[in-house]
Amino acid sequence: MDIQKQRVGIDTDSFQKYKRVKGEKFLWEISQTDIDQVLKISNEHNISLATANVLYSKGYRTKDQINSFLFVSKEKDVYDPILFKDSKIVLKRLLKAIDKKEKILIFGDYDVDGITSTSLLLISLLPLGANINFYLPNRRKEGYGLSSKVVKKAYENKYDLIITVDNGITAFQAADLASKLGIDLIITDHHRPLDKIPKALGIIDSNQKDCCYPYKELAGVGTIFKIICMIYDEKGLILPDKIYELLMLGTVADVAPLTGENRYWVRFGLNKINKKKSLALSSLIQNSRLSKSSIDSRDIGFMIAPQINALGRLDDPREAVEFLISSDKKIVEKIGLKLKRINEERKKLDRRIYLDIETAILERRINLEKENIIIAASPDWPAGVIGLVAGKLTQNYGKPSILFHMDRNGVLKGSCRSIPEFNIFDALNNCKDLLIQFGGHSFAAGLKLLKKNMPKLKVKLEELIKKEVDPKDLVPKLKVDAQLNISELNYSFLSEMEKLEPFGNQNEQPVFLLKDVTLQGQPQILKERHVKSFIFSNGVIKPVIFFNRPELFSFFNSLGDRSFDLVAYISKNEWNNKINIELQGLDVKLS
Q1: DSSP per residue over 433-446, as a string?
Q2: Is 3-58+481-590 a domain of CATH 2.40.50.460?
Q3: Residue 160's pLDDT band (boundaries 50, 70, 90)?
Q4: Which of these CATH numbers, 3.50.30.50, 3.90.1640.30, 1.10.3720.10, 3.20.20.70, describes 81-269?
Q5: What is the pLDDT of residues 454-512, one digit of tens each?
Q6: Which end is more exposed in the chain, N or C (fewer Cβ atoms within 10 Å of the end residue's Cβ)?
Q7: Long-range contacts for 241-245 (Cβ within 8 Å, ≥24 apart)?
Q8: Neighbours of 580 (CB within 10 A)
Q9: What are phi and psi of 2, to 5 degrees?
Q10: Is 434 left (phi over 0), alpha (psi -120 to 50) or beta?
């Protein structure tokens, strides 16, 4: 093998040997590569071998595939909303309602997708003279989705039209009542329909089997955005910039795949906000203590969106709409401080619930040697935060997780998170005889059932997992995209990584393997949870921080002079107008 080939990510022999490697916590799944192909990608696109290796591992291998990924465009990736089933019916009905000043009620959801969807529809239709109001359910008191109670209230208040955003595709009883009461119902949603669809004037959901809209991964906010595009095109108007901020926020927060059309609009929205930030976004950035010159999708997903989400999880989400659309600085600042406070409360609750589950695992009340799905319930766990904790459990234990809030009537409201190998929506569909209701996606879903049916659900899901999933896949895993030498960490490489953004679902931030590095100096433990150290290789020293991995402090202290392998993200740290390249460590193993 020539010298140039040896510099590619990982050589052929190494890939064959380390296809799966056990780290301290995770099983490392190291992408196999074709060195000649990687070299070709590097030469054709004038990029480093490590970046070429990342593109190859993500499945972008031909010139056309790579150009299509790197250079998303409106012409290529954005489709005409007229392709949606019922689009003409919905457009005609909304234009009539606007022109005749009919009373329109938006019914949204309490998460960021629902809140941004509601806000987007409001700020789009109010300037057109629409007689419009909105309703967001309280998670604790009312639960998810359009209810018959809300439809009845709308009738009593003489609403002519209800339009749902980010929900409605399973609202059968509410839809039937609206029809009986003579209220027109338009459903806009992005969740998967069940075997039938509700009775409505029009349904906009690309996941309907007979919907011709080619891109099926829009979030709820993306779905209603397409309808607004039709209305503004019909009237010959230009969309306000605020629309793109809300579209980007909701899409990233709902963990929609950042491919194709979503990738285009998220990139477009990030460019907009980095030129000019709204009052709301500036408040959230200040709360997060972000000092960066530009905000990226990871900042939105991990720092900014959770503050908006916290309101719907623990309080009344309606203030979040006012926060997002208000031009009154005092109102925005006041609500912004409330968001910060509630989000801090939410973090404490997360940690407490996670500790409850970890204790149950340590005490073998949840026996992960025998059980392939983590299921637990408590009346002390607020329904608004259990989904977040379920996500952390699935990430850290590699198994699907379902956590339930138990109410005083013996009804369990649950949130599921799953792994790529186990479609949780299909699994729940196979168990629907045990459920009161359910809905969601392949990775995440919500459900409701009676407490007496929980053991039966557990048995049935365990049977399904045994049939569908290889036991080797029920462990915490890390996909490693490429090997990197520490000497390659320069500003040119950082610039190449930025061309791969925005990172998120189906375009994960690349994970790099750094082999045979040594510890420089003593490790530090920060806030009793995070470990910081310095690594040395090929004459270069770099800082690395491991978040929420306090157990690694003893690993580093026992290393001595031995070398180790590290898997990490590459990150840019901006402080006092200086840019430093740092490593966010994910796992380690002895070389």
Answers
A1: GG-SEEEE-SSEEE
A2: yes
A3: very high
A4: 3.90.1640.30
A5: 999 999 999 999 999 999 899 999 999 999 999 999 989 999 999 999 999 999 999 99
A6: N
A7: 241/272, 241/276, 242/123, 242/278, 242/325, 243/120, 243/123, 243/124, 244/268, 244/269, 244/272, 245/269, 245/272, 245/273, 245/278, 245/281
A8: 11
A9: -75, 170
A10: alpha
DSSP string, 181-212: HT-EEEEE--SPP-SS----SEEE-TTSTT--
3-state secondary structure of 453: helix
252: Cβ contacts below 8 Å, ≥ 6 apart = 258, 266, 297, 300, 301, 305, 502, 504
Name residue, tokens 């949780």: 424
CA-based nearest residue to 14, from 37, 26, 31, 27 = 31
Per-residue pLDDT averaged across 102-113, rounded? Answer: 96
138 touches 80 (CB < 8 A)? no
Every domain of the chain and the residues it spans: 3-58+481-590, 81-269, 277-354, 366-473
Query: From residue 533, how far is each of 23, 517, 527, 553 by CA, in Å?
Result: 18, 12, 14, 9
Q: What pTM was estimated for this model as a whole?
A: 0.90
Q: Residue 244 has what pLDDT?
A: 98
Return the bridge partners of 534, or none.
520, 543
Give the tokens for residue 26: 């995770």
Averaged pLDDT of the chain: 92
The pLDDT of residue 16 is above 70: no
| pLDDT tens for each residue of 265-324 | 999 999 999 999 999 999 999 999 988 888 999 999 999 999 999 988 888 899 999 999
CA 341, chain centre distance (Å): 22
Spell out the CATH class of 366-473: alpha beta
Residue 360 to residue 341: CA distance in whole angstroms: 29
